[in-house]
Amino acid sequence: MAQLDYSQYMASAFAGMKVNTQFDHVESFATSEDVAFGLGVRANSTNPGTVVDLVANAADVFRGIALHVHNESGLYIAKDTASILRRGGAWVEVNATVAIDAPAYIDVSDAKFTSVSTSNLATGGFFRSARVFDGTAGVINIAVVEINLP
User: Fold this and answer.
1) CATH of the domain at 55
2) How many domains does the chain fold into?
3) Mean pLDDT on 2-13
4) Would the N or C end of the chain have less CB density within 10 A of its end CB?
5) In a domain, 31, yes or no
C-alpha cells in the first residue's frame, strides 16, 4: 500500500485551534447564541460574568476567542458551554489581509478579526502571523492572534 501524505486528511491549522503549548488561560462561558470557532466574543449584557455573545459593537467588553472543540455541529450552539481563550495564541478567522505584529481588532459586522481599527473593537492583542488561506474549506482565511486579557 502506498504511503499517503498527512495533508490529504487534515488542514495544518483551522479556526479556533490553539497555536502551541505555551502558557495560556482558558475559561468556560455559556453562549447566548451560536458561535463559530475562531471568532471574538463579548460579555453578555445581562450576565456578563458567565455568558458570552458574538462581538457586535466597538464598545463591547472583549472576553476572548472561541476555541475549537470536536462536536457534531462544528460550532457552539446557543446555551453550550464554550472554551474561551483569554491569554495565549489561537488561529482566528480574519476578513482581510493582516500583517505580523499588527494590532488585532474585531470587525463588529461579523466578529472576525481584522487590523482595521476604525469602528471596530480593540482586543489588546496582536497578529503573530500573516493571513493564511485554508484551501481545505475553500473560503476561510485564518491568522494567529495572541491575546493577554486580565
Assistant:
1) 2.40.300
2) 1
3) 61
4) N
5) yes
90 sits in the region (left: phi over 0; alpha: psi -120 to 50; else beta) called beta
pLDDT tens-place string over residues 48-101 = 999 999 999 999 999 999 999 999 889 999 999 999 999 999 999 998 889 999
Distance CA 57, CA 107 (A): 9
> Would you say residue 100 lies in a domain?
yes
The per-residue DSSP string of the chain comes to -PPPPGGGT--S--TT-B--SSS-EEEEEEESS-B-TT-EEEE-SSSTTTEEEE--STTS-EEEEE-----SSSSBPTT-EEEEEEEEEEEEEBSS---TTPEEEE-TTTS-EES--TTSEEEEEEESS--EEETTTSSEEEEEEEEE--
Range of the domain at 97: 6-148
Q: Is the pLDDT of residue 24 over 80?
A: yes
- What is the dihedral sign for C-alpha 59, 105, 109, 53? negative
Residue 1 lies in a domain: no
Say which amino acid occupies 45.
S
C-alpha cell at 148: 493577554
User: 128 pLDDT exceeds 90?
Assistant: yes
